[in-house]
Design a protein that fits this description.
This protein is α+β, with helices and mostly antiparallel strands. The chain has a single domain, classed as Haem-degrading domain (Beta-Lactamase), CATH 3.30.450. Helices cover 38% and strands 19% of the residues.
Length: 141
């Protein structure tokens, strides 16, 4: 068995594609959003707080993205009970609010998007458009 393996990596260009598509969708909806795009480790690669978005959503959008990237699952669907334990164990660093989606290419998580400032449904709708901007990414329809 080899000692190393090649992995896919989200580029800054890819992160900006995701961010810009999400911004366009939020503008189309008339819902100002905070949008975070992170790499696999949850490190911020791209961010925008649109005019009129709630300032506190800066943090929630990033936490949604971090959670989706690190666990490879959409936020908002973590089973009840586990979600609270997750928040406690990570001192609030991981959240289960709708609007976080992993960026998955060929079965490999390369990052995630987190959206906050609208309703959970609005956040998720904007995040889905962001995901769809990344070529080959798994869709969450």
């Amino acid at each position: 068995m080899p000692d190393t393996a090649s992995t896919l990596k989200l580029t800054s260009d890819g992160a900006m594609k995701v961010l810009n598509a999400a911004i366009s969708k939020a503008q189309e909806m008339g819902v100002p959003q905070c949008i975070s795009v992170v790499d696999t480790g949850g490190h911020l690669m791209a961010f925008c707080r649109m005019d009129g978005a709630f300032v506190m959503s800066n943090t929630s959008s990033r936490r949604k993205a971090e959670t989706a990237a690190i666990y490879g699952i959409p936020t908002g669907n973590i089973p009840e009970g586990i979600d609270i334990k997750l928040a406690l164990v990570t001192e609030g660093q991981r959240v289960n609010l709708p609007g976080g989606l992993p960026l998955i290419i060929d079965g490999e998580v390369v990052g995630a998007i987190g959206v906050g400032s609208g309703t959970g449904e609005q956040d998720l709708e904007v995040a889905k458009v962001g995901v769809s901007a990344l070529e080959g990414a798994k869709r969450f329809d």
